[in-house]
Each structure stands twice: as structure tokens, then as C-alpha cells.
Specification:
By secondary structure, this protein is α/β, with parallel strands linked by helices. It is built from 15 helices and 13 strands. The radius of gyration is 23 Å and the shape is globular.
Length: 399
């Protein structure tokens, strides 16, 4: 056993700091590791050498600021992680390594009326198929990140009653998938995972505080505060779709009237256009038509943007985020929706908060949530297993 405060325990702590920094970023130069961990350049150099000799990290030549540098990433042999995203009408799975490289990815349609058991069975089959396609043995899977369209109760781990998928309320998604796959499963709602995906890979990179707004069959927000997802004590933080805009408005699925969702979600918006555009209209098609100049679709998207802007203004007044990322199909509308959002933010938010806000479209599209599921595993997993390969080197160095 290591004695707290001893040279060996300090060395172990420094190893974990370096591994954690690399694990969260995907890859870093040694100078970036030193800045993010507060360790000296000499200490980082020695630790990286140990981890490389132990097979925990890989070091490749790169350049930074026009100067030669060495990029450090976790070894491809250290393990793989899996992301699973359940949507209103899709199932998407991705397999990645610890260096943030996506090795395989596939999406398939899913019947929203299917039972939860059938959905998890399909997820199990797709995960197995994609892991096999990578050529990596299944025993290398370290963990699975799982996204579901609804709030997860922090204490029980069950899916809340306001979830989009009917018949899934009260199920425990982590337990269900763990029993099928035999590895740790980390679960979160799709908006939080979208925020994680954009934070690590997309439009949120470099932002310590942001909100990811997803508008699809429902409306939700993933909140990042000081670089961490904020879920709230009950796991329901970010349910921006249930801000009340009109107390006499349409009845929402949550039981209240006039929620933001009833003015912006696809299930409420599409019927406005179906009499003139046909019954098979989708939000993606509405966005496409709007970009092509269709006046009706442009009007509806502008109205949706103004309503979303009201919700964003509330977020600005309460949390003062530095960046808001708009995800889902609406993000493809660009300024057609971003402009009206800015108008509402300018009108309803505190001026200083509105001035500091950067509003950008997501860059990951429909992949944001499944990539966020990969990032969830990378953020939740411990570092001890990754250091096992370096133990012999570490012990020799301390001796």
C-alpha cells in the first residue's frame, strides 16, 4: 500500500493527472499537458516516457506554433468505448478508442412504439456487430455511454415520465444494457450528451460555460458549467422545453399549458405547414425548403427562432453562458433561425449577458449525441485500469 504523502503516492497522483488530461482531450502536446496539469515540463517529460514504455500512451511527432512538438494520446491497445443514442425514430451506435478516434458508426430507424426490451435487444445486436467490425476483441470494451430522450432520475437511474419514447417510462436503461453487454454503462439524456459531443468535438470546443439547445421531437438543453455537465440534484436541469410562454397555450405532454416545446418542437410545428406542403413533411425538409426560399417555411422557422430565443434569454439571465450551440435539424437553417434567436435574446436578456453570448450552430449534426455518449464514458471512467500497464515501469522508476 502507498502511504499518503509519500514519494510513490505523489508519483502515482501525477501519473493520473497526466492520463486524465490526455483522456479528456484525446491528444495533447507535452507543453499543453504541463499547462493543463500545472506540472513542470521536466516532470511531464519523465511521466510521458514512463507511460509510453508501459504501453499506456503513444507519442507522435507534430508541430505547435510552427515548432516541432510531440503529441501524446492514449494507446490504441488501451481499450475501446461504445456510444449508444436512442432517439424518437433512430438508434445510432459508435465505437471509438481512447484517443478520440471513431472506429465504426452506424444508425438505423427504430419504431418509437417498440417496447423498451426490443430497443435494448437491437442496441445489443448493433453494438456487437460494430465491435466485431473493428477487428478488436469484445473484451477490450471498457464501457458504454447511453443517451435517451428524457430526464434520468439521479437516485433510481430510471427514465422519467416526460421521455419522448412511449412505454419506456420507469425503465432503468443502464441496468438493462449492462445486463446484455456485461460492461459498465453510463447513461444521460440526449441534450446533455449533445452538449458533451459539441464540447469535445464540435462548436463548443474551448468554452468553459455553454448551453446546447436541441430542438427535435422535444426541446431540451444540455448545460456545461466550468467545463462540467450540470444535471441538478434530480437530473432534470436543462428542461428548457417546459418554460411557460403562454399560460393559455396548447397543452404540453408534461401537463402544463403553453410550454416552449409546444411552439417549437416538430410535433407542433409540422401540422402548421402540412395543409400546404403535404402530410409527409419533416423538419429537415422544412429547413431545406426555407433555404430554397419557401415563404411559409421561412415564416415558421423565424417564429420558432423567436420562441427559442425567449428560452435562451432566460438561460442568459440565470446562468450567463458564454456560448449557446443550436443542435438538431434546425441548426442547418443557419441565419434563418439564428437571426430571430438573436433578436429575442437582445430583447429579453440582460444587455451585458446578451453582449457576452456567442450563438453558433452545432457542427456535428445528428452525430452530436452518440459522440457525446463516447465522451461520457471517457469522462466517467477511472484512470487506474489505464495505468496497470505502466505499473512495472513506475515501480522501477521509484525504486
Amino acid at each position: 500500500m502507498e502511504t499518503p504523502g509519500s514519494q510513490s503516492s505523489l508519483h502515482r497522483a501525477n501519473l493520473e493527472r497526466v492520463v486524465r488530461a490526455v483522456r479528456m482531450a484525446g491528444s495533447l502536446t507535452q507543453a499543453e499537458i504541463a499547462r493543463s496539469t500545472g506540472l513542470s515540463a521536466a516532470t511531464v517529460s519523465n511521466i510521458v516516457r514512463e507511460l509510453k514504455d508501459g504501453g499506456t500512451v503513444e507519442v507522435t511527432p507534430t508541430s505547435a506554433g510552427g515548432r516541432r512538438a510531440r503529441s501524446v494520446s492514449l494507446s490504441g491497445d488501451a481499450g475501446i468505448v461504445v456510444g449508444v443514442d436512442f432517439g424518437h425514430s433512430h438508434l445510432r451506435v459508435a465505437v471509438g478508442n481512447l484517443a478520440h478516434q471513431v472506429l465504426a458508426e452506424q444508425a438505423e430507424p427504430i419504431d418509437v412504439d417498440a417496447s423498451a426490451a426490443e430497443g435494448f435487444d437491437r442496441a445489443e445486436r448493433l453494438v456487437s456487430r460494430l465491435v466485431e467490425a473493428t477487428g478488436i476483441e469484445a473484451g477490450k470494451v471498457i464501457g458504454v455511454g447511453l443517451g435517451v430522450p428524457g430526464p434520468i432520475d439521479v437516485e433510481s437511474g430510471t427514465l422519467g415520465s416526460t421521455a419522448i419514447l412511449p412505454g419506456w417510462s420507469g425503465t432503468n436503461p443502464a441496468d438493462e444494457l449492462t445486463g446484455r453487454l456485461g460492461v459498465p454503462v453510463y447513461v444521460d439524456n440526449d441534450a446533455n450528451l449533445g452538449a458533451l459531443g459539441e464540447l469535445v468535438w464540435g462548436s463548443g470546443r474551448g468554452a468553459a460555460d455553454l448551453a446546447y439547445i436541441k430542438v427535435a421531437s422535444g426541446v431540451g438543453a444540455g448545460l456545461v458549467i466550468s467545463g462540467q455537465i450540470y444535471r441538478g440534484p434530480g437530473g432534470t436541469a436543462g428542461e428548457i422545453g417546459h418554460i411557460t410562454l403562454d399560460e393559455a397555450g396548447p397543452v404540453c405532454r408534461c401537463g402544463n399549458r403553453g410550454c416552449l416545446e409546444t411552439f417549437t418542437a416538430a410535433r407542433y410545428v409540422l401540422p402548421l405547414l402540412q395543409p400546404s406542403h403535404g402530410p409527409d413533411l419533416t423538419m429537415a425538409r422544412v429547413v431545406q425548403l426555407a433555404r430554397e426560399g419557401d415563404p411559409g417555411c421561412r415564416r415558421v422557422i423565424a417564429d420558432v427562432g423567436r420562441h427559442i430565443g425567449s428560452g435562451v434569454a432566460n438561460l442568459c439571465n440565470l446562468l450567463n453562458p458564454s456560448r449557446v450551440v443550436l443542435g438538431g435539424d434546425l441548426a442547418e437553417a443557419g441565419e434563418l433561425v439564428l437571426g430571430p434567436i438573436r433578436e429575442s435574446v437582445s430583447r429579453y436578456a440582460i444587455p451585458s449577458a446578451a453582449r457576452q453570448l456567442g450563438l453558433v450552430p452545432g457542427t456535428l449534426g445528428g452525430r452530436a449525441e452518440v459522440l457525446g455518449a463516447l465522451a461520457l464514458v471517457l469522462s466517467e471512467m477511472g484512470d487506474s485500469t489505464l495505468l496497470d500497464g505502466a505499473q512495472g515501469v513506475e515501480s522501477a522508476a521509484i525504486a
